[in-house]
Amino acid sequence: MTSFNDFGLAESILRALAEEKYQTPTPIQAQTIPLALQGRDVIGIAQTGTGKTASFALPILNHIDARRMRPAPKACRALVLAPTRELSGQIADSFRAYGRHIRPLDIALAIGGVSIVPQKRALSRGVEVLVATPGRLLDLVDQRSLRLDQVELLVLDEADRMLDMGFIHAIKRIVAMLPKERQTLFFSATMSGDVTRLSANMLRDPARVSVTPQATTAERVDQRVILTEKASKPALLAEILKAETVDRVLVFTRTKHGADKVVRLLNKAGLAADAIHGNKSQNQRERALAAFRDGRIRTLIATDIAARGIDVDGVSHVVNYDLPNVPESYVHRIGRTARAGREGIAISFCDHEEAAYLRDIERLIRISIPSTDRRTGKRPAAQHAGNGQQGRPNHRGNHQQRGSGGNGGKHRHGTKGHRNHDARQGGRPQAAQPQPQVQRTGSARDEQSGMGNVKFMQRSNEPRRGAGHRTHG
Ligand code: ADP
Ligand code: MG
User: How many whole angstroms from 144 Cα to the centroid of ligand 1?
Assistant: First the structure.
C-alpha cells in the first residue's frame, strides 16, 4: 500500500499530514495525487467522504511550495470552485490544515451571503489559494477586485452538484478568463453526460480516475424501505425517532419547504429538530450544523444540496422522508451514514407516487431493498391528520415482501431481516450482501472495495471540521 511518503511531497506537507493523523492515502488520493504532481489534468470520480479534498489540495500546496513567488495583487495562483459556502469553508480549512507549515501562505474564501468588503481586502495583495463559489467570484471580478489571468491551477470540486445548481454559465464565464496554460483538476461524485461535456471543454488530455462505481451503495449501510401513505409519513418519522436507537439522524426531504414542514411537525410532537437548506442564512446553517455536530440536536432535516459536503461523523441513521427523483442522490444520501468505519441505517419512506423512484434507485444500486408494508390501504384524506398510528396494529408483523420491486421479484430475501424491522436494529438485511443474481463482476467488486475506504476516514477526536470552519476574509 502506498504511503504519503511515496508521493515525493514536501516535508512541510508530510509533517502536517502526520499531525492530521493521516496514515494512508485513500484510494482516490493514491491514484490522483501522483498524476497531479506530474502536472497532468485529472478527472477524479469518487463518492463523498473518500478524501477528494486532499487529492487536489496536496498537489496544489506542493506546487506552491516548490515554486515560491509572490502572488500579483488581486490575483490567485490556485483557484478552487465549489458549489456551496459550507463546502468552500471546509476546503479552505483543509488547505490551512495541510499547508500549516508552508509560510507565507494566504488562503482566501470568496462566498456569497456575507459581506464582500473583507473578501476584497483579503484579495488586494494577492493570495496563493482562493476557494470560491461561482457567483461571488464573478462579483469580485466584475468589481475589479480580482483578476484571473494568473491562475496556475484550477479545481472544480463537486462538478455534478455545480451543474445541478445551475452554475454552468458562471463556470464557463470564469474558465474563459483563465490562462489556457494551466493545470485543471476536476472532481465529482458522479459522472453524468453534462459533467462529461463540461470536463471536455475544460481539461487538456485528462487522466481519468474512478474509484467508486456510481451503481453501488456503501456496504455497511443497512437499507430498508417502508411503503407508506404520504399522509402517514410524519407519524412514521416520529415513531422511528422514538423507537430506533438513534444517535444522530439526517432526514432528507426533496424540497426546502418540505424540510421546514418536517421540522414543524417534529417540534409539535415534542422532538427537537432543525433544518438546513438554501433559504437559511449562512449563520442559521452554521448554527444548526454545529448543534447537530455536538449533539445538542439529534435530528437534522436537509435537502440534497444543503447536505452535500457536510462532514459529520456518527450519523447513525439517514431517513429519506421523500425519495429522491435522481437515483444517484440516494447513494449520496445514505453515504452520510456508516462513515468512519461505523455501521449505519438508511430508512426510506416510499409512497405510491414514489414507487417509480424506488425502482430507479434499485436498478442503479442493483439491490432490492428489503421493504416493510405499512400502507393502510386507505386513501390519504383529511382523516389522516396525525395518523399512522391507527392502521398500525393491524400491520405490525405484516411485513410483506414486495412482489416485484422493480426486479421482477427475482431478488428474494430471507425474511429474517425483515422480522426485525419494527424492533430496533435487526440483523443486516440480506440486501447488504452480494446477491447471486446481482451482477457483480470482479472489477466492480474491486472498485467496490474503494467504497470501503470510509475506513480510512478515522479521525482524531478534535474534529477539524467541527464548529471550526468559519468564514474568513
Ligand atoms: P470528499 O471531498 O471526498 O467528500 P473529504 O476530502 O471531505 O472527502 O474527506 C472526508 C474526511 O476524511 C475528512 O474528514 C478528511 O479529513 C478525512 N480524510 C481524508 N483523507 C484522509 C486520509 N488519507 N486519512 C485519514 N483521514 C482522511
Ligand atoms: Mg469534497
Answer: 35
